[in-house]
Request: fold
Amino acid sequence: MVISEYGDQFASIARSLRSQADEEQTLQKAIDVAVDVIEGCDYAGITVMRRRRTFETPAATDDIARRSDRLQYELNEGPCLDIVRGDDIISCADTLTEVRWSRWAPRVSAELGVRSLLCFELFTTTQSLGALSLYSHRPKAFDPLDHATGLAFAAHIAVAVASRRDIDGHNRAMVNRIVIGQAEGILMERYGLSPEQAFTFLKRVSQDNNSKLAEVAIELVRSRLTPGAQAG
Reply:
Protein backbone atom coordinates (compact mmCIF):
# COMPACT_ATOMS: atom_id res chain seq x y z
CA MET A 1 0.00 0.00 0.00
CA VAL A 2 1.43 3.39 -0.99
CA ILE A 3 1.61 6.18 1.59
CA SER A 4 -1.28 8.17 0.09
CA GLU A 5 -3.57 5.12 0.16
CA TYR A 6 -2.53 4.38 3.74
CA GLY A 7 -3.39 7.95 4.75
CA ASP A 8 -6.72 7.85 2.93
CA GLN A 9 -7.61 4.58 4.63
CA PHE A 10 -6.98 5.97 8.11
CA ALA A 11 -8.80 9.19 7.32
CA SER A 12 -11.81 7.08 6.37
CA ILE A 13 -11.46 5.02 9.55
CA ALA A 14 -11.30 8.16 11.68
CA ARG A 15 -14.48 9.53 10.11
CA SER A 16 -16.22 6.20 10.55
CA LEU A 17 -15.32 5.96 14.26
CA ARG A 18 -16.35 9.55 14.96
CA SER A 19 -19.74 9.02 13.28
CA GLN A 20 -20.97 6.26 15.63
CA ALA A 21 -23.97 7.00 17.81
CA ASP A 22 -22.45 6.11 21.20
CA GLU A 23 -19.35 4.69 22.88
CA GLU A 24 -20.49 1.07 22.59
CA GLN A 25 -20.99 1.36 18.84
CA THR A 26 -17.67 3.20 18.49
CA LEU A 27 -15.80 0.36 20.21
CA GLN A 28 -17.60 -2.35 18.25
CA LYS A 29 -16.90 -0.59 14.97
CA ALA A 30 -13.24 -0.26 15.98
CA ILE A 31 -12.61 -3.94 16.60
CA ASP A 32 -14.53 -4.95 13.47
CA VAL A 33 -12.30 -2.65 11.42
CA ALA A 34 -9.17 -3.94 13.20
CA VAL A 35 -9.60 -7.42 11.72
CA ASP A 36 -9.88 -5.89 8.25
CA VAL A 37 -6.96 -3.46 8.34
CA ILE A 38 -4.39 -5.43 10.38
CA GLU A 39 -3.20 -8.35 8.30
CA GLY A 40 -2.25 -10.76 11.09
CA CYS A 41 -5.38 -10.21 13.22
CA ASP A 42 -8.04 -12.93 13.43
CA TYR A 43 -9.85 -11.74 16.57
CA ALA A 44 -9.91 -8.49 18.53
CA GLY A 45 -11.25 -7.18 21.80
CA ILE A 46 -11.15 -4.04 23.93
CA THR A 47 -10.55 -4.09 27.68
CA VAL A 48 -11.60 -1.28 30.01
CA MET A 49 -11.22 -0.92 33.76
CA ARG A 50 -14.37 0.03 35.63
CA ARG A 51 -14.87 1.17 39.20
CA ARG A 52 -13.33 -0.89 41.97
CA ARG A 53 -10.63 -1.93 39.49
CA THR A 54 -12.75 -4.55 37.77
CA PHE A 55 -12.20 -5.33 34.09
CA GLU A 56 -14.59 -6.01 31.26
CA THR A 57 -14.67 -6.40 27.48
CA PRO A 58 -17.33 -4.03 26.12
CA ALA A 59 -16.57 -4.95 22.49
CA ALA A 60 -15.15 -8.05 20.80
CA THR A 61 -15.22 -9.57 17.34
CA ASP A 62 -16.29 -13.00 18.56
CA ASP A 63 -16.42 -15.45 21.45
CA ILE A 64 -12.71 -16.34 21.08
CA ALA A 65 -11.68 -12.78 21.88
CA ARG A 66 -14.17 -12.50 24.75
CA ARG A 67 -13.07 -15.77 26.31
CA SER A 68 -9.42 -14.86 25.89
CA ASP A 69 -10.01 -11.59 27.74
CA ARG A 70 -12.24 -13.19 30.36
CA LEU A 71 -9.59 -15.78 31.14
CA GLN A 72 -7.16 -12.96 31.88
CA TYR A 73 -9.62 -11.39 34.30
CA GLU A 74 -10.20 -14.70 36.05
CA LEU A 75 -6.48 -15.49 36.38
CA ASN A 76 -5.49 -11.86 37.02
CA GLU A 77 -2.70 -12.05 34.45
CA GLY A 78 -2.28 -11.47 30.76
CA PRO A 79 -1.29 -8.89 28.16
CA CYS A 80 -4.35 -6.65 28.22
CA LEU A 81 -4.14 -6.38 32.02
CA ASP A 82 -0.48 -5.42 31.75
CA ILE A 83 -1.46 -2.70 29.28
CA VAL A 84 -4.20 -1.31 31.51
CA ARG A 85 -1.78 -1.38 34.45
CA GLY A 86 0.89 0.66 32.72
CA ASP A 87 2.54 -0.87 29.64
CA ASP A 88 2.18 0.81 26.24
CA ILE A 89 2.61 -2.04 23.74
CA ILE A 90 2.91 -5.79 24.27
CA SER A 91 3.57 -8.47 21.68
CA CYS A 92 3.77 -12.23 21.93
CA ALA A 93 5.12 -14.30 19.04
CA ASP A 94 3.91 -17.66 20.36
CA THR A 95 1.82 -18.45 23.44
CA LEU A 96 3.25 -21.98 23.50
CA THR A 97 6.66 -20.64 24.48
CA GLU A 98 5.54 -17.51 26.39
CA VAL A 99 6.83 -17.26 29.98
CA ARG A 100 5.35 -13.93 31.12
CA TRP A 101 1.90 -15.37 31.81
CA SER A 102 2.50 -18.86 33.17
CA ARG A 103 -1.18 -19.71 33.65
CA TRP A 104 -2.92 -17.70 30.94
CA ALA A 105 -0.66 -18.45 27.95
CA PRO A 106 -0.88 -22.29 28.11
CA ARG A 107 -4.64 -22.23 28.56
CA VAL A 108 -5.38 -19.69 25.83
CA SER A 109 -3.34 -21.68 23.34
CA ALA A 110 -4.78 -25.06 24.34
CA GLU A 111 -8.40 -24.03 24.88
CA LEU A 112 -8.87 -21.24 22.34
CA GLY A 113 -6.15 -21.77 19.76
CA VAL A 114 -4.68 -18.28 20.25
CA ARG A 115 -1.00 -18.43 19.31
CA SER A 116 0.18 -14.82 18.96
CA LEU A 117 -1.00 -11.37 19.90
CA LEU A 118 -0.50 -7.63 19.96
CA CYS A 119 -1.87 -5.30 22.64
CA PHE A 120 -1.90 -1.51 22.59
CA GLU A 121 -2.85 1.06 25.20
CA LEU A 122 -5.78 3.28 24.25
CA PHE A 123 -4.79 6.69 25.54
CA THR A 124 -4.96 10.41 24.88
CA THR A 125 -2.77 13.16 26.30
CA THR A 126 -5.03 13.35 29.36
CA GLN A 127 -6.32 9.85 30.09
CA SER A 128 -5.90 6.11 29.63
CA LEU A 129 -9.04 4.48 28.27
CA GLY A 130 -8.15 0.79 28.14
CA ALA A 131 -6.44 -1.74 25.88
CA LEU A 132 -6.87 -2.98 22.32
CA SER A 133 -6.02 -6.70 22.02
CA LEU A 134 -5.34 -8.31 18.64
CA TYR A 135 -5.22 -12.12 18.54
CA SER A 136 -4.18 -14.63 15.90
CA HIS A 137 -4.47 -18.42 15.64
CA ARG A 138 -1.05 -18.46 13.97
CA PRO A 139 2.32 -18.06 15.70
CA LYS A 140 4.40 -15.03 14.67
CA ALA A 141 1.40 -13.65 12.83
CA PHE A 142 2.20 -9.95 13.30
CA ASP A 143 4.96 -8.22 11.34
CA PRO A 144 6.44 -4.71 11.82
CA LEU A 145 3.78 -3.16 9.59
CA ASP A 146 1.07 -4.67 11.81
CA HIS A 147 2.81 -3.09 14.81
CA ALA A 148 2.85 0.33 13.15
CA THR A 149 -0.72 0.02 11.87
CA GLY A 150 -2.00 -1.17 15.24
CA LEU A 151 -0.33 1.72 17.04
CA ALA A 152 -1.87 4.26 14.67
CA PHE A 153 -5.24 2.52 14.85
CA ALA A 154 -5.21 2.50 18.66
CA ALA A 155 -4.60 6.26 18.63
CA HIS A 156 -7.62 6.78 16.37
CA ILE A 157 -9.79 4.65 18.66
CA ALA A 158 -8.69 6.57 21.76
CA VAL A 159 -9.42 9.95 20.20
CA ALA A 160 -12.83 8.79 18.95
CA VAL A 161 -13.82 7.34 22.34
CA ALA A 162 -12.60 10.40 24.25
CA SER A 163 -14.56 12.63 21.89
CA ARG A 164 -17.64 10.45 22.29
CA ARG A 165 -17.37 10.63 26.07
CA ASP A 166 -17.05 14.41 25.96
CA ILE A 167 -20.19 14.63 23.83
CA ASP A 168 -22.11 12.17 26.02
CA GLY A 169 -20.99 13.96 29.17
CA HIS A 170 -22.05 17.33 27.78
CA ASN A 171 -25.46 15.93 26.76
CA ARG A 172 -25.99 14.33 30.18
CA ALA A 173 -25.05 17.56 31.93
CA MET A 174 -27.48 19.50 29.75
CA VAL A 175 -30.31 17.04 30.43
CA ASN A 176 -29.55 17.10 34.17
CA ARG A 177 -29.68 20.90 34.25
CA ILE A 178 -33.05 20.88 32.47
CA VAL A 179 -34.55 18.27 34.80
CA ILE A 180 -33.22 20.01 37.92
CA GLY A 181 -34.79 23.24 36.67
CA GLN A 182 -38.12 21.45 36.17
CA ALA A 183 -37.95 20.00 39.68
CA GLU A 184 -37.18 23.43 41.12
CA GLY A 185 -40.21 24.81 39.26
CA ILE A 186 -42.47 22.17 40.80
CA LEU A 187 -41.23 22.96 44.30
CA MET A 188 -41.51 26.71 43.76
CA GLU A 189 -45.12 26.39 42.61
CA ARG A 190 -46.12 23.82 45.24
CA TYR A 191 -44.48 25.36 48.30
CA GLY A 192 -43.95 28.98 47.35
CA LEU A 193 -40.15 28.65 47.45
CA SER A 194 -37.59 30.89 45.79
CA PRO A 195 -35.24 29.33 43.20
CA GLU A 196 -32.45 29.27 45.80
CA GLN A 197 -34.68 27.60 48.40
CA ALA A 198 -35.90 25.01 45.88
CA PHE A 199 -32.34 24.11 44.92
CA THR A 200 -31.28 23.91 48.58
CA PHE A 201 -34.23 21.62 49.25
CA LEU A 202 -33.31 19.27 46.40
CA LYS A 203 -29.71 19.23 47.57
CA ARG A 204 -30.75 18.36 51.12
CA VAL A 205 -32.97 15.50 49.91
CA SER A 206 -30.13 14.12 47.79
CA GLN A 207 -27.76 14.21 50.76
CA ASP A 208 -30.29 12.66 53.16
CA ASN A 209 -30.95 9.81 50.71
CA ASN A 210 -27.37 9.44 49.51
CA SER A 211 -28.55 10.01 45.93
CA LYS A 212 -27.34 12.22 43.15
CA LEU A 213 -29.08 15.55 42.79
CA ALA A 214 -30.15 14.72 39.24
CA GLU A 215 -31.69 11.41 40.38
CA VAL A 216 -33.80 13.21 43.00
CA ALA A 217 -34.91 15.73 40.38
CA ILE A 218 -35.79 13.02 37.85
CA GLU A 219 -37.89 11.16 40.45
CA LEU A 220 -39.70 14.34 41.46
CA VAL A 221 -40.49 15.29 37.85
CA ARG A 222 -41.59 11.74 37.03
CA SER A 223 -43.81 11.06 40.03
CA ARG A 224 -44.58 14.56 41.27
CA LEU A 225 -43.70 13.14 44.72
CA THR A 226 -40.67 14.28 46.71
CA PRO A 227 -38.81 11.16 47.88
CA GLY A 228 -37.45 10.95 51.37
CA ALA A 229 -38.39 14.37 52.73
CA GLN A 230 -41.16 16.84 53.47
CA ALA A 231 -41.13 20.40 52.19
CA GLY A 232 -41.09 23.10 54.75
Observations:
- The CA atoms of residues 8 and 14 lie 10 Å apart.
- Confidence is low (pLDDT under 50) at residues 1-7.
